[in-house]
C-alpha cells in the first residue's frame, strides 16, 4: 500500500463522462421521488434477474447513456415485446424519462441512475442481453482526451461477454472521427459481425428514432454514423 497521492490518482478508473448536473424541474424531482421506486433499480452490485425484474420472460435491451430518455421511451413504446434497461448518470435525464414512462404507461422499461461501466461489470449477468445501444456518447474530441471515449477494445470485449449469441450492438455518433474510431475498434473484435459488411457503416434503422438534437445537426450539415453488429 502507498501513501503517495500520485499513485492513488493513477489507480482511479478513467471516466467516460463528466457530471454536468443541471437544475431539476419540479416535475423531474417529483418523478425521482415518486416514480423511481417503481421503475428504478439500485446500483448495489447485486446481479440482476431480468425475469423477476420485469415479471416476464422476454429479451432485454440495454441502453447506456440515454440522455433525456425520449428515444428510449419511443423505442419501448414501439416494441412492447422487448424489455429495456436504461442507465444514465445525470438525474434530470432520469427524471425526464420517468415522466415519459408515466405518461405513456410503459411497463417494459427500468432505469438506473449511476455509472454504467460499474453496473455492467458487476450487475449484468453474462450472455443475458439481447442487445446494447449506445447513441451519441461524449466524443471527447481533443486528442488528449480520446482515452476517455467509452468505445475502447476492453469495452467492446465486455459487451461481447454480456450479449447473448445472435444479439446486437448498436452504436451511433455524429462525430466522424469518433465514428472511424468506433469502426476500427469493433472491427478488431472477432466476436462481432458487421451487419453492413466489413468496414461499413449502416443506414439508420427505422427503429432508432431521430432526436431533436440529431435533426438540428442534420440541418447544419452534420452527418450521423450508425454501426450495427451481431454477436457471433
From TrEMBL:
GO terms for molecular function: tRNA (guanine(46)-N7)-methyltransferase activity. Pfam families: Methyltransf_4 (PF02390). Catalyzes the formation of N(7)-methylguanine at position 46 (m7G46) in tRNA. Belongs to the class I-like SAM-binding methyltransferase superfamily. TrmB family. GO terms for cellular component: tRNA methyltransferase complex. This is tRNA (guanine-N(7)-)-methyltransferase. S-adenosyl-L-methionine binds at residues 63, 88, 115, 138. PANTHER family: 3-DEOXY-D-MANNO-OCTULOSONIC-ACID TRANSFERASE/TRNA GUANINE-N 7 - -METHYLTRANSFERASE (PTHR23417), PENTACOTRIPEPTIDE-REPEAT REGION OF PRORP DOMAIN-CONTAINING PROTEIN (PTHR23417:SF14). CDD domains: AdoMet_MTases. InterPro entries: SAM-dependent_MTases_sf (IPR029063), tRNA_(Gua-N-7)_MeTrfase_Trmb (IPR003358), tRNA_methyltr_TrmB_bact (IPR055361).
Amino acid at each position: 500500500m502507498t501513501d503517495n497521492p500520485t499513485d492513488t490518482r493513477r489507480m482511479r478508473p478513467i471516466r467516460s463522462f463528466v457530471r454536468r448536473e443541471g437544475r431539476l424541474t419540479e416535475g423531474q424531482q417529483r418523478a425521482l421521488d415518486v416514480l423511481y421506486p417503481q421503475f428504478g433499480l439500485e446500483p448495489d452490485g447485486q446481479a440482476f434477474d431480468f425475469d423477476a425484474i420485469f415479471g416476464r420472460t422476454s429479451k432485454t435491451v440495454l441502453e447506456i447513456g440515454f440522455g433525456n430518455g425520449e428515444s428510449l421511451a419511443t423505442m419501448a413504446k414501439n416494441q412492447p415485446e422487448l424489455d429495456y434497461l436504461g442507465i444514465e448518470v445525470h438525474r434530470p435525464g432520469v427524471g425526464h424519462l420517468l415522466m415519459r414512462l408515466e405518461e405513456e404507461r410503459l411497463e417494459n422499461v427500468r432505469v438506473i441512475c449511476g455509472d454504467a461501466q460499474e453496473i455492467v461489470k458487476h450487475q449484468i449477468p453474462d450472455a443475458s442481453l439481447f442487445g446494447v445501444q449506445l447513441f451519441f456518447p461524449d466524443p471527447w474530441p481533443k486528442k488528449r482526451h480520446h482515452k476517455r471515449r467509452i468505445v475502447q477494445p476492453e469495452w467492446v470485449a465486455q459487451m461481447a461477454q454480456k450479449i447473448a449469441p445472435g444479439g446486437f450492438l448498436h452504436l451511433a455518433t455524429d462525430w466522424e472521427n469518433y465514428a472511424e474510431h468506433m469502426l476500427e475498434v469493433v472491427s478488431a473484435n472477432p466476436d462481432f459481425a458487421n451487419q453492413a459488411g466489413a468496414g461499413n457503416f449502416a443506414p439508420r434503422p427505422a427503429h432508432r428514432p431521430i432526436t431533436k438534437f440529431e435533426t438540428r445537426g442534420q440541418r447544419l450539415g452534420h452527418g450521423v454514423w450508425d454501426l450495427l453488429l451481431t454477436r457471433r
